Amino acid sequence: MSSVLYDAQGPRAKRRNVIFTVVFLLALAALLWWVFSTLDDKGQLEWALWKPFFTGTEAWTTYIWPGLQNTLKAAVLAVIIALPLGAVLGIARLSDHAWVRVPAGIVVEFFRAIPVLVLMIFGLALFAEYTDVSSDDRPLYAVVTGLVLYNASVLAEIVRAGILSLPKGQSEAAMAIGLRKNQLMRLVLLPQAVTAMLPAIVSQLVVIVKDTALGGAVLTFPELLASANTMSGYYGANVIASFTVVAVLFIALNFALTSFASWLEARLRRSKRSTGAVLGAEDVDDINAAEVGGPHKTDGV
Amino acid sequence: MFDFLEDYDLLGAFWTTVQLAVLSAVGSLIWGTLLAAMRVGPVPLMRGFGTAYVNTVRNIPLTVIILFTSLGLNQTLGISLGADDFETINFRLAVLGLILYTSAFVCEALRSGINTVPVGQAEAARALGLSFNQVLGLVVLPQAFRSSVGPLANVLIALIKNTTVAAAIGVAEAALLMKEMIENEAQLLLISAIIAFGFVVLTLPTGLFLGWVGKKVAVKR
Fold first, then answer.
1. Which of A4, A37, A44, A122 is most worth mutating to test chain B (most B CB atoms within 10 A of its CB)?
2. CA-based nearest residue in chain A for residue B117
């Protein structure tokens, strides 16, 4: 085993590793013991508090499933609305005409620089003041509005980066055979860019799913996190148990999405038919951070 | 038109946002560096722990973590982080939550920096007879830090935006003030524009400056 940091290990390094392992194991055990005894002291390990999740289906059908449905509903709606918007903004940012490129750039950079929560709070007040959406539906509308405004600009950057990641020869060849700019984009660049972007879009879904929880905590949107709150009220202050179940569900959902994205990325990188241009999870992290000037290219395409 | 602003502590709220961001940034840089050291180190158990931590924390919404610090750690388990009054407790809990969450991303940023150093660099250094400490200190880490600046800057900007989640447990920062102002005043667009402007002022220059630094120090390959 050799990496850029250390060489294959000799007897002394192996001995040192064993010592590190033992010390770390002891520290980890101490931490777990402290967690366990604190929970036990406060009576949070009593079976009664955990029982609703393991026996009977009431907790799942009354609280968790509806919450999960709302989480997924907001996330899917947001991505469906944000994708076309993002595509238009991303292509507009690549336009040859400054009067198209500059406004699109300003919109994208502005919404990426603002926290999603601020956009959601704005959305809630906007729907309350200027529309007659019923107060029951308003949180969903507000959450989706906030998510769309933010993620359309992130997806715009993904689209732009996807098109820019294609080898220059593609557009040169297309221009050489006399295609118009419109045909170049529609027939040559976009179809390839969409493939290259797929893993990045799936990774962005993780960000969207995580951000729906904001709606539950601040806007009274009845999603998965909000259902944890309701449950801990109903089942006798089992905050630890409810939060654990909800956290595990979020982790499972997002881990599935992340794994799917990496599988997709690996598959596209291996594929012989594509140009090998792929946008992965790391590019998405960069884009979400609102870094000016697009993502860094870590791997030379 | 701007009269109503006198009733609210706008600068104070943004000052809280800045405090949250700076304290969490320092904390997550420390914990994130430790995690990165575990993840790239030679001890399998530590590597496993680092990987498990990052994969778990990255997939939980920050909102869940921050709400849990208040409802779970504080109200259920009675952990108050050495503070007495409600405001200080929640502020410290929010910083704790932000550190736990952000350090996973700091760890990944540092690790991606280390991964950009070609193995040949370390092999060449070893072939010259440099010791482990020399290889790390003179060859690998200087290059790794330089390529980590860009990704770390991104983490910092995301952190500044994420401080708004502290509003969920009642920390008096910019997003909570915005909510309060919107409920009391009929100036929706103006209030939103002011808050949005505040965040643009915080994030854009940071991004431009650190992006410039990142490009300047980056190792050309």
1. A4
2. A4
Put simply, the answer to whether A117 touches B175 (Cβ < 8 Å) is: yes
CATH number at residue B145: 1.10.3720.10
How many domains does chain B divide into? 1
- 3-state SS of chain B? CCHHHHHCCHHHHHHHHHHHHHHHHHHHHHHHHHHHHHHHCCCHHHHHHHHHHHHHHHHCCHHHHHHHHHHHHHHHCCCCCCCCCHHHHHHHHHHHHHHHHHHHHHHHHHHHHHHCCCHHHHHHHHHCCCCHHHHHHHHHHHHHHHHHHHHHHHHHHHHHHHHHHHHHHCCCCHHHHHHHHHHHCCCHHHHHHHHHHHHHHHHHHHHHHHHHHHHHHCCCC
Smallest Cβ distance to A217: which of B67, B78, B155? Answer: B67
CB contact under 8 A, A117 and B61: no
Nearest residue, CB atoms, B122 vs list A4, A9, A228: A4
- Residue A272 clears pLDDT 50, i.e. is over it: yes
Residue A19 at interface with chain B, using a CB cutoff of 8 Å: no
Whole-structure pTM value = 0.89
**What is the arithmetic mean of pLDDT over B119-146?**
87
In a domain, B3, yes or no: no
Assigned domain for B1 exists: no
Decide which of A276 and B2 is more confident.
B2
Q: Do B63 and A1 touch (CB under 8 A)?
A: no
Fold of A49-288: MetI-like fold (1.10.3720)
Whether residue A145 lies within 8 A of chain B, CB to CB, comes out as no
Q: Is residue B18 part of a domain?
A: yes
Q: For residue range B12-36, list pLDDT tens digits in order.
A: 999 999 999 999 999 999 999 999 9
Which residue range(s) make up the domain with B144? 9-217
Q: What is the pLDDT of residues A170-190, one digit of tens each?
A: 999 999 999 999 899 999 998
Any chain B CB within 8 A of the CB of A251? Answer: yes
Q: Is B136 among the domain residues?
A: yes
Nearest to B112 among A1, A118, A282 (CB): A282
Q: Which residues of A touch B164 (CB under 8 A)?
A: 115, 117-118
Q: What angle do CA A110, A114, A119 make, to 5 degrees?
A: 105
Mutate to test the interface with B, among A121, A205, A223 (most CBs of B within 10 A): A121
Task: State residue B185's pLDDT score.
Answer: 84
What integer is the mean pLDDT of A238-242? 86
